[in-house]
Specification:
Largest sheet: 8 strands, mixed
Distance between the termini: 30 Å
CATH architecture of the largest domain: 3-Layer(aba) Sandwich
Mean pLDDT: 95
Structural class: alpha+beta
Strand content: 25-35%
Helix content: 25-40%
CATH topology of the largest domain: Aminopeptidase
CATH class of the largest domain: Alpha Beta
Low-confidence stretches: none
Number of helices: 12
Radius of gyration: 20 Å
């Protein structure tokens, strides 16, 4: 009989990661890949809201995935969500419906527990997830010539550890402008910081995380990676607080790009899109956000999310 069962970090490292490293290790050697995966599992957020799960028959793993819990603010409501990542079936068990069965069972489990929405980021085969009830949300990137961004002299500084609190305040201000967005608890902020230290989202280049401060308060920030090989600044996220901060975003992005020709990144949420020139958005073919409703409130959210982006690259799992 098929059954769901949590996979411990050690078991996951021993039984699953050797099979998935070619897909998702990226620039990392196997030892680094395992170490960073375990770091995330043992973090405060990981212990509370993340687990690895397998579909088993007897003692055999037939399929596996990562499971995350997040909260989405939707208007005045806070909706419980469950996210899935690293969905994998060993080669000898493919085309038998095991991954489909695993996700369906996990979604039923989440629905029974009161979750409103299931979500994932599909790098390949979005049609597979569509068959399970997942709807595709806007999948776009922006790409703009750096010299088209408003310039100006600004007193930018390299982000320091003490700036994270101010960055979180800027993010919260941006969240309040949108109809929906993922909330970030202190644990989630620490998770994001840990992933940034790992550098697992970027295969090359130089990290560039900049802020503009007024006294000790952060007015605007940008998190990203300079990639000379692509002649571009790859933006993971930017934000601001107040009108003064809003005016600083474009020159801060241009400053972060330096002598690189382009500034690129995921299409930001609507209010942040207004800081970019018109006509710079185009379709993205990977990391497509997909959502499936699990409740009445979830259905309303998914209808909204299907027409309006609400995530940054830093929300990718």
């Amino acid at each position: 009989m098929l059954r769901l069962q949590p996979i411990s970090a050690d078991e996951y490292a021993h039984q699953v990661l050797p099979l998935t490293s070619r897909l998702w290790a990226g620039w990392r050697d196997f030892e680094t890949y395992v170490g960073q995966t375990n770091d995330l599992a043992r973090s405060a957020y990981g212990k509370r809201s993340y687990r690895t799960v397998g579909l088993y028959e007897n003692r055999q793993i037939l399929a596996s995935c990562k499971r995350y819990e997040r909260v989405i603010r939707f208007g005045a409501k806070r909706l419980a969500t469950v996210g899935f990542g690293a969905v994998f079936t060993p080669a000898q068990f493919r085309a038998r419906g095991y991954a489909t069965a695993m996700l369906a069972m996990l979604m039923d489990e989440a629905r029974t527990a009161g979750a409103d929405v299931a979500y994932l980021f599909s790098d390949i085969l979005p049609a597979f997830y569509a068959a399970l009830g997942f709807l595709q949300c806007p999948s776009r990137i922006f790409s703009v010539r750096a010299d088209l961004l408003q310039g100006g002299r600004i007193r930018r500084a390299t982000m320091q550890e003490h700036d994270w609190r101010g960055i979180a305040r800027c993010f919260a201000a941006g969240q309040a402008r949108e109809s929906w967005s993922f909330e970030r608890s202190p644990g989630m902020w620490n998770w994001i910081r840990l992933r940034m230290r790992h550098g697992s989202e970027h295969a090359s280049g130089q990290t560039v995380n900049l802020v503009v401060r007024k006294r000790q308060a952060v007015l605007a920030y940008v998190l990203g990676q300079r990639e000379p090989a692509h002649d571009a600044l790859i933006v993971d996220e930017f934000g601001w607080a107040g009108d003064e901060g809003h005016a600083l975003v474009a020159p801060l992005l241009r400053n972060a790009a330096g002598d690189l020709r382009r500034v690129m990144g995921w299409m930001p949420p609507p209010a942040a899109c207004e800081t970019l020139p018109r006509g710079v958005i185009r379709k993205r073919k990977d990391a497509i956000l997909m959502m499936a409703p699990l409740s009445t409130h979830g259905k309303r959210l998914v209808r909204t999310a299907a027409g309006e982006n609400g995530v940054w690259a830093t929300d990718h799992i």
